[in-house]
Structure formats: C-alpha cells, structure tokens
Amino acid sequence: MFWIKKIISQLLMPVPLTLILLLIAIMILRRRKLVKSLMVSACLLLLFCSSQWGSYWMASSLESQYAVNNQAMGAGCVVMVLGSAHDSTINASATQQLSATALARLTEGVRQLTLGPNCQLVVSGWRGGDEVAQAQVMAQAAIELGVDAARIIRLPLAKDTLEEARHLQWEIGNVPFRLVTSATHLPRAMQIFTQAGTQPQPAPANFIARRGYVWQFDAKNLLISQRAIHEYLGLLWLKIKFAVADDI
Questions:
Q1: Residue 39: helix, strand or coil by DSSP?
Q2: Predicted pLDDT at 143
Q3: Nearest Cα to 137, choosing from 120, 123, 121?
Q4: Positive or negative CA dihedral for 190, 195, 198, 199?
Q5: CA distances from 3 to 8, 86, 128, 156, 219 (A)
Q6: pLDDT tens across 144-182, in order?
Q7: pTM of the prediction?
Q8: Alpha carbon distance 188, 205 (integer Å)
Q9: What is the pLDDT averaged over residues 9-37?
Q10: Where are the beta strands (DSSP E) in 136-193?
Q11: What is the pLDDT, as a whole number, of residue 246?
C-alpha cells in the first residue's frame, strides 16, 4: 500500500499528468476532437501550475492555516521534527547532507527548543534508498547546530507521516508536543497525529508560497504547485481512509 500510494500520487503531479495527457492524445490522433481537448487540457494544466498566481494560490491556502509558533513551553517539553530527504554519500557535514526542506524543518525545530527548558528533540525518517536513516542524519545535524545529543530521540523506522505518528505515540503517549514540518504539509500532519491519539501543537516551517509577478512562469512555481498538489491528494486520501475506518 505504501508504494502504491507513492506511485499514484506521483502520476498525478503536474509534469507526469501533462505527459500522460499528451501521450494519450498521440495514441488516439484519429479522434481529433478528443485529441484537441486533451492537448488543451495539458497545456492549461502546465500553464496554471507554472504560473506565479497558480502556485501561490495553491500553496498559500495550505500555509495560511497555521501561524509561526512563538509560544513558550514548560518543563518536559518535546519538539518533533518530521523527516525529509537526505543524501549521506555527500562528503560533508550532516547539515549539508540534508535536503533544503529537511534543513529548514530542523532549523525551526532547533529554534523551538529555545522556547522551553531542557526540551527533548525527536527526529524521524527511515533510510529509503540511502545507507543511513534520515533520523540519524537529522540527529547528527542537530548536534552540529548545538543540540545536546542526550536530548535527542531518534525514530529511524518510520517511512511516512502515518508511521511517524504511531512511533511517536509509542514513545511519548499523549504528552503535548510541538510538531514541526513544512507549512504546506502541516494541515495533513496535524490530522494524522491527532487521529493517532497524540496532542500536537503546530509549528510550521519552510514556507514556500511567494508573491510575485502574475506573468511569471518558471520551474520554481511548478515545484511549489507540485508540493501543494501532493498535500491536497494526501488530504483527500486521509478523508477517504478515515471515512472507511468509521464505517467499519
């Protein structure tokens, strides 16, 4: 189910979906009206997703749901930073091995630690196709940023947000904690962690929605749109999953 979900979500991203529509159009060239409709749809999809207005509209509606968290925390505080990509084959420090998204999340997580006394930092993520788990790289990067190694909890077996929520629940139970992840991902993450029986407090990081010129079309906007669409598909999947679970 994990890989099926990943494959389907990737096929519905702007670039693969555009290519699929164009490929179908080529395969049925004799049906001119349908071909024209598919080609127009593909062009409009690519135009919208690569536009400044389209990407901002999709991402900002997710990122505006939770504001930056500057609230102080009490004793026994816990900060959970969700994993993202890394590459341990890069011959550099752990902070350099992290993806831009992972580093932005971790940086906010380290800042959250300063809002409470002796907070514990939880980092997560499996190894995927890498030799080292994401949690291990994140932990080492946190140490490089000044976090005491004794205050770090690692969850190296969690493959996605659903598993991260379950593993954290096993680790800390229903203790309130700061949930740090990308601002676009936070609405879905909050639902998942709440459904898992934990008490997350939102702490968004890595805001990507940017205002700009309406006429601007580029690959950066396309990437922002892709991330937003990925989250909307994830929210839809959660809605279906929870609805089916309630009916059982």
A1: helix
A2: 97
A3: 123
A4: positive
A5: 9, 19, 12, 18, 26
A6: 999 999 999 999 999 999 999 999 999 999 999 999 999
A7: 0.85
A8: 14
A9: 68
A10: 152-155, 177-182
A11: 61
For residues 82 and 155, give the distance between their C-alpha atoms in angstroms, rounded to a whole number.
Answer: 10
Confidence tier at 5 by pLDDT (50, 70, 90): low
Residue 37 tokens, joined: 């409709």
CA distances from 204 to 21, 22, 101, 195 (A): 35, 37, 12, 19
| Alpha carbon separation from 174 to 109, 165, 177 (Å, rounded) | 20, 11, 9
| Predicted local distance difference test score (pLDDT) of residue 67 | 97
Q: In Å, how far from its chain's centre is CA 156?
A: 17
State the Rg of the chain over Cα: 20
Structure token pair of residue 209: 């929605």
Closest listed residue to residue 45, CA positions, set 18, 9, 27: 18
Contact at 8 Å (CB) between 121 and 109? Answer: yes
Cα separation of 246 and 113, whole Å? 37
DSSP conformation letters of 66-86: S--------TT-EEEE----B
Alpha-carbon span 37 to 136, nearest angstrom: 49
Q: Residues 180, 182, 188, CA angle at the centre, nearest 5°?
A: 85
Region class of 122: left (phi > 0), else alpha (psi between -120 and 50), else beta: beta
Judge contact between 118 and 75, C-beta under 8 A. Answer: yes
Q: Name the DSSP class of 201.
A: E
Tokens standing for residue 10: 């990737």
Give me the pLDDT at residue 8, please: 62
Residue type, 45: L
Q: Please say if the pLDDT value at position 28 is more than 80.
A: no
**pLDDT, position 59:** 96
